[in-house]
Write a structure and sequence with these properties.
With 483 residues, this protein is an alpha/beta fold. The chain has 21 helices and 17 strands. It is 42% helix and 16% strand. Bound molecules: pyridoxal-5'-phosphate.
């Protein structure tokens, strides 16, 4: 390293460019290389990027931090090319989810299965029969494309679909409870991430919330006593992202249905994740299914399409013919209806459930959830040395067993035995900063890697890494970023 004085003496200090050394935007545009870019991208974008590049260079020149080369046409052209690519690169990017949470809301929740992707692509690349009845040759209903399939799988009499489960709950409450009272246990007034709070949704739907029971205990008489001529609906909410433990009591759907129906009232249940299969059969923690809630007597059950179901964002509403018909006719339905993109993906995803024996292979969500710990551990052991050589000597690398989660509010207290590669800073001080820098370097890779920090280490849980090379191919770039 030279001192500043030496570099001046040696005459090698790069000369600074001033603002008047910069070409005009027009002159930059006339450069042959820039004209080639215009040929490819058109004038609008290239001119915009030329302006951006010149403006940036001017700011640096005025600050005295632009060397003379930076004002030359070839370097500016290069910068224009980069600005074009930056502008054309989508903000939504693929990432590697190594957080250990399989259905991660921040990372896009469920991954679509191959047949769903294929169907989505085929249906979106041309016209389709979204609302066209191919038998009758006239106007059709988009719900009819999927209703039979949903009823087949869940045993419901009728079904409809909307934008997401929040919309399903809002629509159900509005259609069945607007201007009247809806009874919910105090133990079930949930808040889901992203500002979905049951009391607020109730208010938005125009229904009056009648809370019964206490946080930890609610009894059948609590509901009975709250029923008035103003009551429109009894509602049960699956406490999907927390568990009430200890001295607790809740009224199950079968008991609630008996109370509701004795008063000629409907019962709705918001299931949240709503697995369509018995997860216990796969060695996973049990989650209630819409099938069993309907069998217990619920008139309406709502659940998400992109949680345990493993499909696109959608809200499924299943139930009795009468309740679903009221919901479908309610004007808000039109505003909340499912778009053709997720509809195509949802149909193809649901068809996978017709072959349950293959589901753990065909449905990515279930495939990831059922990966055995030994398999993940073996994978970690197979790549740990490659990771080590990329991050040594700054980080100590180890393979550890760990506990992941299903995610998206499903089964919050149940954990998934998994395995991780952990990276711990070797320095005695500044560990927090070293970990943040490592996490940032991982996020800066072309396929950003998202891990989790805990216990003074960065954890890369490999449950959701089905192809190791997606990580190992990026290790040279990581090594460079850390150097
Ligand atoms: C996740 C969840 C919702 C919201 O579903 P989205 O599909 O995210 O709109 C509503 N209720 C419960 C109980 C949930 O778990």
């Amino acid at each position: 390293m030279r001192t500043p004085d030496e570099s001046v003496v040696n005459g090698s200090k790069a000369a600074q460019a001033s603002a008047k050394d910069l070409p005009s935007i027009d002159r930059l545009l006339k450069q042959p290389a820039v004209q080639r870019l215009v040929g490819e991208h058109g004038h609008t974008l290239v001119a915009r990027c030329c302006r951006e590049v010149i403006e940036r260079a001017r700011v640096r020149a005025l600050a005295g931090s632009l060397d003379i080369g930076g004002a030359q046409p070839d370097q500016l052209t290069q910068a224009v090319d980069e600005a074009i690519h930056a502008r054309l690169a989508p903000s939504m990017r693929a990432v590697l989810n190594l957080t250990g949470t399989v259905i991660h809301t921040n990372l896009g929740r469920a991954l679509l299965a191959e047949p769903a992707l294929e169907h989505l692509l085929r249906m979106m690349s041309g016209p389709n029969n979204l609302e066209y009845d191919l038998d009758a040759g006239g106007r059709g209903d988009r719900d009819s494309l999927i209703e039979g399939l949903i009823c087949d799988i869940t045993g419901a009499q009728a079904a409809t679909v909307v934008n997401n489960n929040a919309a399903a709950v809002l629509l159900t409450l509005a259609a069945l409870g607007r201007g009247r009272e809806v009874i919910v246990s105090r133990g079930e007034l949930v808040e889901i991430g992203g500002a979905f709070r049951m009391p607020d949704v109730m208010a938005a739907a125009g229904a009056t919330l009648v809370e019964v029971g206490t946080t930890n205990r609610t009894h059948p008489q609590d509901y009975e006593r709250a029923i008035t001529p103003q009551t429109a609906l009894l509602m049960k909410v699956h406490t999907s992202n927390y568990a009430v433990q200890g001295f607790t009591a809740a009224v199950d759907e079968a008991q609630l249905a008996e109370i509701a129906h004795r008063h000629q009232l409907p019962l709705a249940s918001d299931l949240g994740a709503g697995s369509l299969i018995d997860l216990a059969a796969y060695g996973l923690p049990r989650e209630p299914t819409p099938q069993e809630k309907l069998a217990a007597g619920c008139d309406v059950v709502t659940f998400s399409g992109d949680k345990l179901l493993g499909g696109p964002q959608a809200g499924l509403i299943v139930g009795s013919r009468d309740a679903i018909s009221r919901i479908r006719k309610f004007p808000l339905k039109r505003a909340l209806r499912l778009s053709k993109l997720p509809l195509a993906a949802l149909e193809a995803t649901l068809r996978l459930y017709l072959r349950p024996e293959r589901l753990a292979r065909d449905l990515p969500t279930l495939r990831l959830l059922t990966r055995p710990q030994e398999e993940i551990l073996a994978q970690a052991n197979a790549i740990v040395q490659a990771v080590e050589s990329a991050v040594m000597p700054q980080f100590l690398v180890q393979v550890e067993t760990t506990l992941g989660q299903i995610g998206s509010g499903s089964l919050p207290v149940e954990r998934l035995p998994s395995a991780a590669i952990t990276l711990a800073p070797t320095a005695k001080s500044g560990r927090g900063r070293a970990l943040d820098a490592l996490a940032s370097a991982l996020r800066g890779l072309s396929l950003p890697v998202i891990g989790r920090i805990g216990d003074d280490r960065l954890w890369l849980d490999l449950r959701c890494l089905e192809r190791s090379e997606l990580l190992t191919d990026q290790l040279p770039a990581l090594k460079e970023a850390l150097a």
